[in-house]
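Students often ask why we bother encoding 3D structure as a string. The short answer is that it lets us treat folding as translation between two languages. Here is a chain of 422 residues written in the first language.
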Amino acid sequence: MWDDARARALLRAVFDAAVASADPMRVLAAHLPPPPEGRCIVVGAGKSAAVMAAAVEAAWPEVPLEGLVVTRYGHVVPTRRIGVIEASHPVPDANGEAAARRILALVQGLTERDLVLALISGGASALLALPAEGISLADKQAVNRALLASGAAIGEMNTLRKHLSAIKGGRLAAAAAPARVVSLAISDVPGDSPAVIGSGPTVADPSSLADVRAIIARHDLRLPPAVAAHLARAGETPKPGELPHARFEIIATPARALAAAAEVAREAGVRPLILGDALEGESREMGTILAGIAQSVRTHGQPLAPPALLLSGGETTVSIGAGPAGRGGRNSECLLALAVALAGAPGIWALAGDTDGIDGSEDAAGAFVTPNTLARARGAGLDPRAMLAAHDSYGVFAAIGDLLLTGPTLTNVNDIRAILIT
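And here it is in the second language, the structure alphabet:
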């Protein structure tokens, strides 16, 4: 028999397995290239940058290392030879700008005997903040806030960021030539495109200024005058074929995380079904769709019979609009929509969380849904449907004690959504 404790324990084990599959201390060493004859410069950015640097140090105890990585505040781990700077995410700050400037300087003047090892993970785009000439950090912060509020997909955000940067969109690799550049990356984006992960600082950029103009028009973005002026005169980023000295390898992905989660379900006697690793769209709409699939499993045994676990990854979006909004993230909003759609259906539990441990900007990774989520919320004097409309999903799950609290996991392979149907 499935009770609440057993269901929650399985969902948490599934989430933890997904996170563990992307732990740099477990997976990075196997992907390191041979040490160089000359200097080894380690640079990097992202929520996993510090732990990735520590993993390099552990794997190469005798190799002379130098360099610098930038990570989100609160994501530092001890390193001995590679420097670490903390900066702001998702809106860049002066620390991120200073770190990017120092990283760009570190790769200048190298030779073909040298190696630049670039460690890239989720969050790198905001953390590696070096505005293009003529653009201020305040301008980039304004663009980031506009993008976050617009509902733009992560790929669209990064396309715009690349064309406003002096380091993204392949410019870091271009600056390091003729040194060999090897990038090791943890993917947090749908489709695992190297050009999208962290806005591709070491990868040729297939997007164009025409793409940027289309994104601006599509989301009706209001840009600072300096940004609009830059885009009117800017040249293109490095294009495919222009960075032959650079190699890119992904060491952890959402698909591998979902596979690890599915294996935990099988070991528990539950049939897993991975719906996809790159599901996108509005968070509340995703919750409603997933609720419909879960009901089909429970009622008709389709697309598989219970006990079953529906797994999905990717990154949904929350379009806030012009009105006031409460607290919440894309995972908690997806779950609250799912709970509202399920309307207390028995035998269905769910978890959704960001594998970095932070759902948007909140202190929770996500939340749990149980068959009595709505009843408990109403018992606490809350109106779940009204709070969903106000984007206050965090408030609901905090009030009933169902937040998923992990702290920073120091990795990021995007979101994991798991729905258990018994």
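Translate back mentally: The two ends are 9 Å apart (CA to CA). Keep this in mind for the problem set.
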